[in-house]
Amino acid sequence: MVNRDEDPGQVASRLTGRPVTGARRSSGSPAEVLLDDGTPVMVKRGDGPGAVRAEVAGLRWLAAADAVRVPAVLGHDERWMVTERVPTGSPDPDAALNFGQALARLHAAGAARFGSSPPDGPEDAYIGLAPMRNAPGADWPRWYAEHRVLPYVRGAVDRGTLRPAEATVFERVCARLPELAGPAEPPARLHGDLWNGNVLWGADGEVRLIDPAAHGGHRETDLAMLRLFGCPHLDRVLAGYRQVTPLADGWRDRVALHQLFPLLVHVVLFGRGYAEQALAAAREALTG
User: Fold this and answer.
1) Which 3 state secondary structure label does DSSP give 35?
2) Least buried of 11, 93, 107, 162, by fewest C-beta within 10 Å?
3) Is there a contact between 76 and 52 (Cβ–Cβ < 8 Å)?
4) DSSP readout, 166-206?
5) Longest dimension (CA), the chain
6) pTM for the full predicted model
7) For 156-173, what is each residue's pLDDT tens digit?
8) Cβ neighbours of residue 126 closer than 8 Å, sequence gap 6 or more
């Protein structure tokens, strides 16, 4: 049975089997803990049922592609996980180019279907603190509408952060998704929550990705998320990506379409402040 009163140091010792010599003061999660041999590790508490299971499965699925690096999982249970700590440095153009190449290889590793969970991952997962259901589908436009746009539109309306009349804009996008989606693509292996805060620029010159919401999806969604909140040297990331795998014609015109998912998640989690941005993206998606 898990002791819910454990502190991060106790958790790290229990899950790694190693004594702990110290912990950096932290009032939240994740927390940095020092093992007895001087190795720093990160201890993170799951925020909801199945959250740790989903994140561990996602990290291992991404690592299995042997493409973009992720922190190693050193131990976990249903409530806590311990991962290696990544020493970070400054964003670098060469690292960005290499990251783009690795991201293309990650996507090319594929998934069984759109919406597929990582092996051993739960169907009911999370993106940040928001629920995210990994229900498989064969057709990306229909799947994206049913599982990545409309559930968050309904959630935002229920919370009063999106007005019922405004929801019709997103419904129009969903109705037109078959024509707006561009050429058909096979399911890609997505990080799923690829905003800049989940990109660690390692001190060794290699990028690591953290906090995945991994699933099978459209590769342009990961790329659109990188653009949404700004990513250093994004032009170099995209250049590296296209060196490995060309992007389909018109991908720039579909950025707003793919940004609807993370923007609507933000509307649900953080309120009205993101609603206008989501509405603008929906209108841009409709006009191309």
Assistant:
1) strand
2) 93
3) yes
4) HHHHHHHHHHTHHHHS-S--PPEEE-S---GGGEEEBTTS-
5) 59
6) 0.94
7) 999 999 999 999 999 999
8) 47, 48, 50, 51, 54, 132, 213
Contact call for residues 9 and 33 (beta carbons, < 8 A): yes
Residues 6+ apart with CB under 8 A from 187: 110, 111, 112, 113, 114, 116, 140, 216, 217, 218
Please state the rounded mean pLDDT for residues 107-117: 98
Whole-angstrom distance, CA of residue 88 vs CA of residue 226: 19
Mean confidence (pLDDT) of the chain:
95
pLDDT at 2 over 80: no
Q: Which of 150, 147, 128, 151 is nearest to 139 (CA)?
A: 147
pLDDT at residue 26, rounded to an integer:
56
Residue 66: CB atoms within 10 Å: 11
Token pair in block for residue 252:
């720039």
Which pair of tokens denotes residue 91? 């964003």
